[in-house]
Amino acid sequence: MRPTVNDIAREAGVSLATVDRVLNARPGVREKTIKAVNDAISRLGYVRDLSAANLARSRTYRMAVVLPDTESQFVQTLADTFQDAGHLVATARIDLSLHRFPPEDPHALAALLLDLPARGYAGVALMAPETPVLRDAVRSLRARGLPVVALVSDLPNTGRDHFIGTDNRAAGRTAGVLMGRFLGGGPGQVMVIGSSLLARDMIERRRGFDEVMLRDFPGVSVLQSLETHGSGRTLRQVVTEMLANAPDVRGIYAMGDGHRALTQAIQELGLSGKLTVICHELTPHTRKALEAGEITAVIAQNPGHLARSTLRVLRAKVDNLPLDEGQEQIRIEVLLRENLPPTPSDAPDSATEATSTAA
Amino acid sequence: MRPTVNDIAREAGVSLATVDRVLNARPGVREKTIKAVNDAISRLGYVRDLSAANLARSRTYRMAVVLPDTESQFVQTLADTFQDAGHLVATARIDLSLHRFPPEDPHALAALLLDLPARGYAGVALMAPETPVLRDAVRSLRARGLPVVALVSDLPNTGRDHFIGTDNRAAGRTAGVLMGRFLGGGPGQVMVIGSSLLARDMIERRRGFDEVMLRDFPGVSVLQSLETHGSGRTLRQVVTEMLANAPDVRGIYAMGDGHRALTQAIQELGLSGKLTVICHELTPHTRKALEAGEITAVIAQNPGHLARSTLRVLRAKVDNLPLDEGQEQIRIEVLLRENLPPTPSDAPDSATEATSTAA
DNA sequence: TCGGAAATGAGGTACGCACCTCAAAAATGC
DNA sequence: GCATTTTTGAGGTGCGTACCTCATTTCCGA
Predict the structure, then answer these.
(1) Spatial CA neighbour of A66 closest among A119, A16, A145
(2) Which of A188, A246, B30, B204 has the most crowded CB, counting CB atoms within 10 A?
(3) How far, in Å, CA of A66 to CA of A304, rounded?
(4) How many CA within 13 A on the CB side of residue B127?
(5) Which residues of chain A are within 8 Å of residue B50 when distances are taken between CB atoms?
(6) Residues of A with CB below 8 A from B91's CB?
């Protein structure tokens, strides 16, 4: 059998109460005694039974997930995934709630964040561009003891506790190799489109992309980034114009969202399948476009992994537990028409663990 | 607060004992009463508290993971991952043990398997080629109530309870697109190498590869598969000969293992970087070769995911619980030099739930 | 209508841990 | 050596569920 707290007490020659004090870092124990207990722990190879511990605590942590309120399908999918994972309350004593903020209003976001501690939250996961107000808000939260986790787009200068998402620079590099190789390295131009060039994820993707293109595919010239500010209208207009005037454009790298407008523009110009189009995130739309050959490749991060990882990390941070870094790495997925995962969209979304009644 | 069994009892107007009987599918309850309880359950939205349930059960299930005893680095990594996850005993009341069998001796494997029930095992995960003896052994296990999970290579005709691994056909297709596009679709020959052409995963990869090459890249001619039977010696010899005599070979698709010999042969012939080489699985060696540019792309499945998924699935099967299909899908990873994950090789692989003793 | 079988209730113990209280022992300062 | 503070011990309760026993009630068929 696995050793229990009682075994430790016996082994260390102390009482249960003392073991408990040491295990939970409660005050009032001499250094010497702490050491004795820890020695016993390592001698017996004791491992705290988390099921029992959580049960005994029977305290649930309120966690906030804060996402921008854009119409982006990716963000929407992410929101849905978190929503579904809310049932996780069951097993991990986490009470999750979703918050959205107007993407163009950093002050509203800051206000939202700063209100969280008062409302009893114990941790926050946040997807937002790094602005000065945001930086202050995050710092303030952390000062009050709330762990803050950056989601999808990192917030390196805020002191966030963790970043959950792909390495966007590497994602950009990956897009670069694929683009370069798919174009055969030959001459031609590549358009780069991003929603907002301020968001850290965009910047890093662009940097990674350029890095590879310059180094490995000097024959291909990469045009300046086009900024669309999330507006499909703008995107479509700009792309149409651009493509009409630049016959040398053989590839498009869409770093952000607004893919619908993009593929529409391509279709209208009759360029479907003639361009190498690489974009990010698997959404219903990009899936369809991939299947139809309108998009060549999608660089994606799995929303399910993001959500699960977020919850694990938040829990670990709140409890001050170590992480399994390997498990928390969000991989960069390369999706082609040929390796599209079967759509689980209409599969009933069961909770992580379901209740079984008689068969 | 979440509803508990007591709430259900009250809501359904029955006693706790009856609720328990229904929840755990024990006999001696009228249909009508079962329904009443289930109604109460859904009305209250009851979800069994797994922490408490596992605690109360305090029974651990012995699970066997059975892997071939080859020197393949991938299998080795997999074995290590399982080994590390053995600490999972802690949280999921799973007692995991690893078994290896001589890859060329299906009878030894069958004997090993058939001995498991007597030794108190409650479930098996198995990576092995499908032979008639194996089929019978698996059927026998399942008849005795042991769930059997196929690992990496599916065993479709054995009635296995689940398959954990990538869709190998899709993996082959992915290799195909990459090969075709990287070659620019132009003329040339592609060598295909596999360790054993009997293993289901090899067959499916080859099928997927051919499918794409024939359909989308008719200009590229794909040579017959070379079988190496896991021998590096044979592989090296065959490849060297082949490459020397066929100057048109521009790409190599290595479906299985033995990459070391392959890259050696390529190096010796001075063809490093001049061929498009695609192979499977991320191992220390393929990582290095990828970084050095000797291998162009690696199609991989993540051993950590495989191991974790295996444990979750085994547990669910043993407990007769439903699965979260989405989470159990093993994605096909496309690895290029540009998106190689940082090596976590020396990061300690803690179990799904980490242990914390005093900080 | 009665008897046996089936269904249900009442209540208990255990799982491993967190957290509480109060008393007793040990260490400390003077 | 005494009073004071710090440390430790003993013991209890509860978390939500599993699983057990034994008594009681309800059901069904003859």
Answers:
(1) A119
(2) B204
(3) 16
(4) 24
(5) 51, 90-91, 353
(6) 49-51
Give the residue nearest to nucleotide D14 (CA to C1'): A56
User: Domain B168-300 belongs to what topology?
Assistant: Rossmann fold (3.40.50)
Q: Does the beta-carbon distance from B358 to A54 stay under 8 Å? A: no
* Domain A57-165+304-330 in CATH 3.40.630.30: no
Residue A89 identity = V
CA of B54 to C1' of C15 (A): 8
Task: Tokens for A169, please give them.
Answer: 């620079």
- What is the CATH architecture of B57-164+304-330? 3-Layer(aba) Sandwich (3.40)
User: Which of A336, A337, A345 to probe the B interface (max B CBs under 10 A)?
Assistant: A336
- The pLDDT profile of chain A, 359 residues, written as one tens digit per residue, is 789 999 999 999 999 999 999 999 999 999 999 999 999 999 999 988 888 898 898 878 889 999 999 888 899 999 999 988 766 665 667 888 999 999 889 999 999 999 999 898 989 999 999 999 999 999 999 999 899 999 999 999 999 999 999 999 999 999 999 999 999 867 899 999 987 767 889 999 999 999 999 999 999 999 988 887 766 677 788 888 888 888 789 999 999 866 788 888 888 888 888 899 999 999 999 999 999 989 999 999 999 999 989 988 998 888 777 788 878 899 999 999 999 998 754 443 333 333 333 22
Q: What is the DSSP string of B20-35?
A: HHHHTT-S---HHHHH
Q: Which tokens in the block code for residue A90?
A: 């069951």
In chain B, domain spans:
5-28+35-48, 57-164+304-330, 168-300
Nearest CA among B117, B111, B102 for reference residue B137:
B111
